[in-house]
Amino acid sequence: MKINLILSLMLISGISIATNKNIPSRPHRITVYLQGAQIHHSEDLTIPLGTTEFSFQGVSPYMDQNTVVSSGKGDFTILETRFNTRYPEAIVEKDSNPLQQKYERQIRLKNDSIQELNYSLKLLEARKKNLVVEKNFLENNRLIKGETKRDTLALVINALEYYRSRMGNIDAEWIKATREEDKLNRQKAEMQESVNELSNLIAKIRSGEPVEDAQPIYEVVITVSADVAQAGSIDFNYYTPQASWIPEYDLKAKTISTGIQLVQKAKVYQNTLTDWKNVQMTLSTGNPRLSNSRPFLSPFYAGYYRPYATQEVLVNTNVAGMAMMEMIDDAEYDAKKSAPKMQAEAKMPANYTTVVNTPVLVEYKIDASYSIPSDNKPHVVVIQKKELDTKFEYYAIPKLDADAFLQAKLINWEELNLLQGEAKIYFDGSFVGKSSINPSITSDTLALDLGRDKSINIERKKLKDKCKEQLLGENKIITRSYSITLRNNKSIAAKVNVQDQIPLSAQKDIVIENENLDGADKDELTGIITWAMNLKPKESRTVKFSYTVKYQKGVVLNELP
Which of 453, 470, 505 is the last residue of a domain? Predict the structure, then answer.
């Protein structure tokens, strides 16, 4: 109402609205959400006396028009802010049409280039003809063909060597000329195609049709009123869903004594149809599209379901933000149908005003300026680097693999407020593989496999002298014994967790007992036994274990591990 009142007073008092001023604008600050982006523009302007419409061009056509907000600095009043799509006037046929003259100049330049390419192609054609003539001359030479009888052997040998050398050069030169000829022909075809396109554009201009240089103009129009001319600034921002970012990580470890460096990055995508050039960027984990108002429960009344009753849904518009639905039966339907219908009130600007309460979120403000084109491709932005508290341990299962596998354990990693994302792992300057960081893991330790380490030698042997089979009454007893030897060839100490297993009984009449586990911890549910060893540099250690299996003789037993 205030805006309409001001405009009405201006018209009554004879104040005219100034000519629209077109202002090229580009984003200077952007907040990118996991889905969507808030784009901020700021322009320093000279604001004239009276009322002026500033049309800021260079905005995204994919903006949510209800989210455009403007502000400014200076002694003036912002009357209205709106998004507008404007189409240029049709281009009429004129001899002095600047756009037509521009295209005609481009055609002349391209035709000159095509003529130069034709000259170069003629030179290449002549060079190839000369090479063919020279090749035919050598092939038909009587000395080369051996048709002369007075030539010496040395002369013939020299002639043959020259023939081989020169023929090879001729073929190479001919191929080189052909390749260059193909390249020039491609350039000529591209230029000719461009000339044809420009000619079509000129034909459109002469017929009054729009051309590509006259595409729709997307703009934010801000109307201001000032009592005096002055210098000031106008800021505006809007939300667009055509942008997003995805977290990803690099985990880098040089040695097992230096810890792991976390490089947190983001893949930023944007398809707003406006390029972001040298913008200050903030990456946010928030989602402005989510409602920030807490929900409310309404009374729920249980009633009988009437499957054959005619039903109508009435929306009570007297309760702001809430639709009350009323089910009515056939008798009530006729009464309400005959009653006069009430029209809803027209919406006012206040209906589109939203009060946003910022929820708890994480924001990453990037100090450096970034340029991201509108191509909907991933562009990597480095967020931060952190040194992580890390413990390194080796795991070995020599029964399955003779190598030791290095594992890094990140301590208290959940304090970093990371998002779920892919992690690339590097160790000692080499890419090891990929993992994932999942903040929903309840453990405070994140384990990452870093691959094999050949500097720890492992050997598992079956002790044949202690492996035996014997009969005891109606039963058969089998004894198995193994040794595992490890050697740390590294110059630093290493913690190695070695695992093996004891078979589990699947039937009551099969009894399995441990003869010796040599200090290993055993998981009774899985039968896995584990030795936790701290090996000094160049240290070797051997552990042994054995078990017995007693079962009914005459029965075939599965192969023991």
Answer: 453
